[in-house]
Design goal:
The complex is a heterotrimer of chains A (344), B (297) and C (133). Chain A is mostly helical and 344 residues long. Chain A has 2 domains: 247 residues, no CATH class; 83 residues, no CATH class. Helices cover 61% and strands 8% of the residues of chain A. Chain A is built from 10 helices and 5 strands. In chain A, strand 2 and strand 3 form a beta hairpin. The longest helix of chain A is centred in the N-terminal third of the chain and has 40 residues. Chain B folds into 2 domains: 203 residues, P-loop containing nucleotide triphosphate hydrolases (Rossmann fold, 3-Layer(aba) Sandwich); 78 residues. Chain C has 133 residues and is mainly alpha-helical. Chain C has 2 domains: 64 residues, Winged helix-like DNA-binding domain superfamily/Winged helix DNA-binding domain (Arc Repressor Mutant, subunit A), CATH 1.10.10.10; 38 residues. In chain C, 52% of the residues lie in helices and 6% in strands. In chain C, strands 1-2 form a two-stranded antiparallel ribbon. In chain C, strand 1 and strand 2 form a beta hairpin. The radius of gyration of chain C is 18 Å and the shape is elongated. In chain C, 21% of the residues are buried. Classes of the chains: A mainly alpha (344), B alpha/beta (297), C mainly alpha (133). Chains in contact: A-B, B-C. At the A-B interface, helix 1 and helix 4 of A face strand 5, helix 3 and helix 5 of B.
């Protein structure tokens, strides 16, 4: 049965090896030079706060070609689980139903359980290996940019983003393993329920995209309780300041000096007692040099930030991976149960 | 004699339609059993239940003395050729034989290879490129290559041209003559089955109408022609399967084990095809076409 | 070795057709004592009929004393029909028949009437129990 699974999986295996090779060549051609530029930029040896400008400069110098590769690589890693679900998972069992070959496969001398286990195991493990492989290769290549991006996170610099930011988080670490397993088993389940390859592929893509959209917005932020901090106001406020009629104003931060790369949930201006304020004191309304920050600071105003510290990166990664792997196991179990019921 | 397939009030329902109902059969071993009936009569359903691809809604079915095959030991004893002979289009003939060898511990590789050579199948040819007849032959090789005790074929020749059909049946008969093999094959064409079957099951409208050895069926079904008579006046042991009348004459197909003593009848034998057609007409509501010739008094 | 054929539309059971063909072959001299009949497997494969049908015919021939099975080897012709005479030996009967046919034609009967007359006379004679070989 292993031979048959491999033989049926061969076309997909060949395609993925070719894709991996192309990916690897592209990264290998550009990686070393990028690393060299990083080494000479001085960002590596910078610690603590105040690294933003250095990191920002580096990021500016690598814009252009490297940015393109950066984006393409990220897209590749993000798309891999979806493509695996659609092209490996959805046709796996649905083609057998569509062509009727399941009636041959299920009347040989092996049980249906053994048939299913073998059919799922090889491509499933390959899916995880390919996706995580892509992620690691990409991670190695993008490490310099990633470091600098973390230090320069916020909206001030190109590519500046915290490792928690939507796309970056999904493309690094261990979550690709979970996405691959889930995407694959989602495709297989769609194939079992719909029994025709093309509709199963479409449904898999839609559901996978929906899940990948919902989880970072609704589930990921609630996995761990966020922390709270208060950042004092200084001149050259690095966040966003907006003003409205009267003396209305609002402050927002997307970068914490003490925690570069932290995941900012929300931020707002508060007074000395910690209560939210939206009206500027009259004295600060017309500052001498246009910067009302020092005045508001003297009134005890600050920015209250709700955030996830960088130390939570790996716990969130592992928890989310665990959730996706759990979903994959449930889906696989469902398929097992469903096919055991002997439907036509 | 043991039975290869035994059912008690077997039934299968899809949503609100009964594909098979009230099926009670005891098919003996060592025969070539024909399962005949029009399309949609339930033949495929019955065969799929026998090989374990479907689960019954009501009733029970035993195959080779046990439940329909689910464990490897049981699966090895039953060979199945599904309708339209599904094969893996992307795999070659040789790879199909490898499939048989890997998935069946009882696979006879020598026998299978000899067969494909004798049939003229190119081992390197992809199965998707084979003709309909060749695909059926490849699928049959896969079904008998594991040397089963029971071979079940679902409409194996339905989509084949006459030559391929004849060659398939010749080939099947040779395989049977070589070893101890019980065969159940279904068809909606009586002509295919007449030559090869020695046991017949007639399935019309999801129900078994009659079943038995061919000799016995031929001996107990008679065509009676004689003066016009109401079929209800016939003696109790004579079951009227179909009746058609003109104003003067009645033609009845009856089933009985007793001799027919009434001198008014001319008794003649009936071929299997006409017998099956009579049952189909009975299921459809009996002798509608001939009514046009009746003169109402 | 003789070759069998089957008329699917004749209404005669296949095994009976095989028996008839063996008898006919014996009559015409195509089969002689000691000749081997075709193997069951070959007949079944050649005609696409059930091997049991062939076995039944061969067993019937054995019962009539015309053939005998040698296990592992095959089935062989052991007997002959009637007194061992072939059709060629029935010269007088043939000539009598030719005379009768000429008479029937002079009486105005066409081919079909002659056949019908012969068939009904033959059948009624058989029903009254006269021995027909």
């Amino acid at each position: 049965m292993t031979w048959l699974t491999w033989r049926q999986f061969r076309p997909q295996a060949v395609t993925s090896v070719v894709a991996l090779a192309v990916f690897a060549i592209l990264l290998a051609a550009t990686g070393p030079h990028l690393a060299g530029m990083y080494a000479s930029s001085g960002v590596a040896s910078c610690h603590g706060g105040g690294c933003q400008p250095l990191a920002g400069n580096f990021l500016t110098t690598v814009s252009g070609g490297y940015t393109v590769v950066f984006m393409l690589g990220m897209a590749g890693v993000l798309l891999a689980p979806a493509l695996i679900g659609v092209f490996w998972g959805a046709p796996l069992l649905s083609r057998e139903f569509e062509t009727g070959t399941y009636r041959m496969a299920w009347t040989q001398s092996i049980t249906r359980a053994r048939w299913m286990a073998s059919k799922l195991a090889l491509p499933g493990l390959a899916a995880i290996a390919v996706t995580e492989g892509l992620s690691l290769m990409y991670g190695w290549w993008a490490a310099p940019i990633g470091q600098a991006a973390r230090l320069a996170s916020g909206s001030n610099f190109p590519l500046g983003m915290s490792p928690f930011s939507l796309l970056a988080f999904d493309a690094h670490g261990v979550v690709p393993i979970g996405y691959a397993a889930f995407g694959f088993t989602l495709g297989v389940t769609a194939g079992v329920l719909i029994r025709r390859a093309v509709p199963a592929m479409a449904v898999t893509l839609l559901i996978f995209a929906a899940v990948q959209f919902v989880v970072p917005l609704a589930i990921r932020p609630n996995l761990f309780p966020p922390e709270h901090a208060s950042q004092p106001l200084t001149a050259n406020f690095s966040g966003v300041q907006s003003q409205g009629p009267g003396r209305r104003f609002a402050l927002a931060l997307d970068y914490l000096d003490s925690q570069p790369g932290a995941w900012i949930y929300s931020s707002r201006a508060v007074n000395a007692a910690g209560q939210p304020v939206s009206i500027m004191p009259a004295a600060c309304a017309h500052p001498p040099n246009g910067d009302s920050m020092p005045c508001m600071a003297s009134h005890g105003f600050a920015v209250a930030v709700t955030y996830q510290p960088t130390s939570r990166y790996w716990p969130i990664q592992w928890t989310e991976t665990g959730i996706y792997l759990g979903l994959a196991v449930i889906l696989a179990g469902f398929c097992y149960w469903r096919l055991g019921r002997r439907l036509p | 004699m043991t039975s290869v397939i035994e059912t008690q009030e077997l039934g299968k329902r899809y949503r609100r339609l009964w594909a098979l109902a009230d099926c009670t059969l005891s098919i003996p071993a060592g025969h070539v059993v024909g399962l005949v009936g029009p399309n949609g009569a339930g033949k495929t359903t019955l065969l799929n239940l026998a090989v374990g691809l479907l689960a019954p809604t009501t009733g029970t079915i035993q195959v080779l003395g046990g439940p329909p095959p689910a464990k490897p030991a049981q699966l090895a004893r039953v060979g199945f050729l599904a309708q339209d002979a599904p094969v893996y289009a992307g795999l070659t003939v040789a790879e199909h034989l490898k499939l048989g060898a890997r998935l069946n511990p009882g696979w006879d590789a020598e026998f299978a290879r000899r067969r494909t050579d004798w049939l003229g199948l190119d081992p390197g040819q992809k199965a998707g490129k084979l003709s309909g007849g060749q695909r059926a032959q490849l699928a049959l090789t896969l079904a008998i290559g594991k040397r089963p005790d029971l071979l079940i074929l679902d409409e194996p020749v339905a989509s084949l041209d006459p030559l391929a059909r004849r060659e398939f049946l010749e080939d099947l008969m040779e395989a049977i003559a070589e070893g101890e093999l019980s065969v159940v094959l279904s068809s909606h064409l009586m002509a295919d089955l007449e030559r090869v079957c020695d046991y017949l099951v007639v399935l019309v409208g999801s129900r078994v109408r009659v079943a038995g050895p061919v000799d016995e069926l031929l001996a107990t079904h008679h065509l009676l022609t004689g003066p016009r008579r109401d079929p209800a006046t016939l003696p109790a042991g004579q079951e009227v399967i179909s009746a058609s009348h003109t104003d003067r004459q009645s033609t009845l197909l009856v089933r009985t084990s007793d001799p027919i003593l009434d001198p008014a009848w001319t008794v003649s034998g009936v071929g299997l095809e006409d017998m099956v057609l009579a049952y189909m007409r009975q299921a459809a509501g009996g002798g509608r076409r001939r009514d046009q010739l009746e003169v109402h008094r | 070795m003789i070759e069998f054929h089957l008329d699917g539309r004749s209404g005669v059971a296949p095994y009976m057709q095989l028996i008839h063909q063996v008898r006919q072959a014996l009559r015409l001299g195509l089969l002689r004592e000691g000749d081997q009949l075709p193997k069951v497997k070959d007949v079944a494969a050649g005609l696409a009929i059930n091997p049991n049908t062939v076995l039944k015919a061969y067993r019937e021939l054995e019962y009539e004393g015309l053939a005998a099975a040698r296990p592992g080897v095959g089935t062989f012709v052991t007997g002959t029909l009637g007194g061992g005479e072939s059709l060629a030996a029935h010269g007088p009967l043939r000539r009598e028949l030719q005379r009768w046919l000429a008479k029937a034609r002079r009486a105005g009967l066409d081919d079909e009437s002659i056949e019908a007359l012969f068939a009904s006379t033959f059948r009624s004679a058989a029903e009254t129990g006269e021995e027909i070989a």
